[in-house]
Amino acid sequence: MSTGSDSILDAFLYETNTLLEQLDSIVLAAEQQNDISQDDINTIFRIMHTIKGSSAMMEYNSLMTIAHHAEDLFAIIREKGMDVVPQGLRPELFDVLFQTIDFFRQELERVENDQPLTENIDTLYQKINTLMEQIRSGGQAQPQLESSAPSAGTNSNHFPHGLQIFFDEGCGMESLRAYMLVCSIRDICSEEDFTYEPQGVENDSSTSEQIVESGFFLYFRKSEDRDAAIHAVTASGSVRSYQAIDQAEPQPEAKPEPAAQPAAQPAVQSAGTQPAAQPTAQSAPAASVAPAASAAPAPAKPAPAKPAPAKSAPAAKSEGSPHHKESLISVNLSKLDELAAVVGEIVITESMVTSSPELKGLKLDAFTKSARQLRKLTDELQDVSMSLRMVPVSGTFQKMNRIVRDMCKKLGKQARLTLVGEDTEVDKTIVDSISDPIMHIVRNSMDHGIEETPQQRVDAGKDPVGEIVLSARHTGSEVIIEIKDDGQGVNYDGVLNKAIRNGLAQPDVEYSHKEILNFLMAPGFSTNTQVTEFSGRGVGMDVVKRNVEEVGGTVSITSEPGVGMTTTLKIPLTMAIMDGMEVSVGKSIFTIPIHNIRQSFKISDEDLIRDAAGGEMFKCMGSFYPVIRMRDLYHMEGGVTQIKDGILIWLEAGEHSYCLFVDELLGEQQVVVKPLPSFLNRFNIKASGIAGCTILGDGNISIILDVSNLHTYAKA
Does residue 526 share a domain with residue 643? Predict the structure, then answer.
């Protein structure tokens, strides 16, 4: 039972998040044009309608309420076009839309974390309401509705046909729910033909108590309008009961009796019987008390049959430009993980079969041919399974547009974001892991990099509008992501002085620019002197470095004062299967990621240089690189000790570049990365330069080296 509920919730979260990403892109592009096309207006309306419906199904009332009101707003714009929104109101329209998107995301985050949803949505609700009233009045502040609508108490003879409505007990926000009914009824009849009590529900939350006590009253000039309004009432997601009232009778003040609510009757059934009940409503008020949305949870039961009202979103997005139709299906990431694990086992088993010691010396032509075909099919299966996990970085990149837009407004700066290589594909797990690091770097570029005012940039001979370039590209087995800004660059003296004050650097030591930039990624390091919304808390680049290294990547920074700063992330395409070089030290076998290997050498003792501390160095292409001997580092028995008997491998990972001495190269092989047993974590294995392990074709285990941490471990 719980599995079904979880699947419905997963579908809701996935579809709603997808819609919000689409909505964010539409509004960002529209704000730049200060206009919304008719196609995009229709898309926004459908998105709000979908979120309203799916939120009502899940009984997320705050989401449903805001989505419903935003839908009402775009119903006006959709009917009359964007011309109905005066130019002076358009910035406010875009701001309200962004606030609505942020609200939706905040609520979804609460749902994901199993936290209660926000109950007080009055502020955002009133902003949408005020904007709607201004649009209706052509941009002018419209008088409060209660001053123009006839009072039911003083004009009861003009509005003889009434409805008394009670909302679900304890549902909260009764005044807003009442106003939602008013907005729905405006679509049914004109404002001159109905009124309501209490007045002011659109901007006075204190009316909620009165509504709880006595109900919410709607009054109509014509009985047919009242009958049509009953459908809007029964369609509401929170109405417990209603009662038809004719003004010839005294207005009832008592709450409806609980016996009038058949709890087991589903809402869909009561709505279906509504037409037959309408004549009774006019002649016999007591008989017209009918359950409305009290049974609203009932439609949630068949919801799996249509858990994706958001499925219309991709079609909406394509209205502007035709493209080939694709058949898509959403798959849980855990199932892809299981598939990758099974494929990995197949790769290992195939290697074990074809490399079996029992086959040595045998001439088996048919077996060799079959084994070759099996290897071909295994490689194809592996490629397909890996491609299923690959997703473009465009989703993560597009989110940065919003970061830049919001920070420009809040910091008073002018900047634009340029995206390059959005279609570059990376493993889904890695894309999720690098989203936060990229966000931190973009925020740093906006906060620290881009100059405070356009005039400062003009004085420096630059374009008054700053630019941040976010790019991605493939290089074999890894993807390189660069975040580059044309701002003021890093103040090396300022960073060094802060590092000295923090005890990270010594005042009497000369540091290179590269070493100074590395201080930026130290835990708790910040160049801001005061805490702001965006920085100054010491949380930033150290988080970037840690998150990127957790997925096997590296971070490097370059900067030129007055020109700008570039942060480069080197990320493996996938963490599941990698190309590695097998090397041996004694009887042990190690795997080194191919993308970390620059070159290998056979050298003699005369080619080594010793530094003042006794360490060994090797000169290559005009630079000196430290030499690390695997045998000595891990205190291993066996293995060669003479340089001329082994081989030297030049490795590079981020800012680390050094040479590793091993016995011999065994050859290149595609390996399946296996995590080490969890009980080894207490020995801090990862910090010792070990990233994991893999099973070789002969059944032996090979340790996979972490090239970056290996260098750090050797220096410690």
Answer: no
Q: Percentages helix, strand, coil for the chain, rounded to the nearest 5?
A: 50, 20, 30
- What is the tally of helices (H) and strands (E) in the chain? 22, 23
Q: What is the chain's Cα-based Rg?
A: 34
Taking Cα atoms as reference points, which of 369, 373, 423 lies closest to residue 398?
A: 423
Q: Do residues 76 and 135 lie in contact, with contact meaning Cβ atoms separated by under 8 Å?
A: yes
Virtual torsion, Cα 433, 435, 437, 442, nearest 10 deg: 170
Say how many Å lie between the first and final Cα of the chain, rounded: 54
Looking at residue 648, its pLDDT comes to 93
| Exposure on the CB side of residue 508, measured as CA atoms within 13 A | 0
Rounded-to-integer distance, Cα 530 and Cα 514, Å: 26
State the pairing for strand pair 664-672/577-585.
antiparallel
| Secondary structure of 20-60 in HEC code, one letter for each residue | HHHHHHHHHHHHHHCCCCHHHHHHHHHHHHHHHHHHHHHCC
pLDDT at 624: 87
Q: Which of 389, 404, 429 is the last residue of a domain?
A: 389
What are the backbone dihedrals phi and psi of residue 26, each rounded to the nearest 5 degrees, phi first?
Answer: -65, -45
Polymer length of the chain: 716
Establish if 323 belongs to a structural domain. Answer: no
The pLDDT tens digits of the residues spanning 578-590 come to 788 999 999 899 9
pLDDT digits 0-9 by tens, 348-380: 788 778 877 788 778 888 888 898 899 888 888
Q: Structural domain of residue 262, as residue ranges? A: 145-299
Residue 11 lies in a domain: yes
DSSP state of 222: S
| Whole-number pLDDT of residue 247 | 62
Q: Please indicate whether residue 293 or residue 239 has the higher confidence score (pLDDT).
A: 239
Neighbours of 677 (CB within 10 A): 9
Nearest to 466 by CA among 411, 506, 414, 512: 414
For 586-625, letters b (16+ CB in 10 Å) and e give eebbbbbbebbbeebeebeeeebeeeeeeebbbebeeeeb
CA distance 198 to 185: 16
Among 108, 139, 170, which residue terminates a domain? 139
Model pTM greater than 0.90? Answer: no
Q: How many separate domains does the chain show?
A: 5
Give the closest residue to 429 by CA, choosing from 553, 308, 311, 342: 553
Alpha-carbon span 298 to 706, nearest angstrom: 54
607: tokens are 């080619």
For residues 272 and 337, give the distance between their C-alpha atoms in angstroms, rounded to a whole number.
Answer: 46
Q: Which of 167, 178, 239, 185 is CA-nearest to residue 72? A: 185
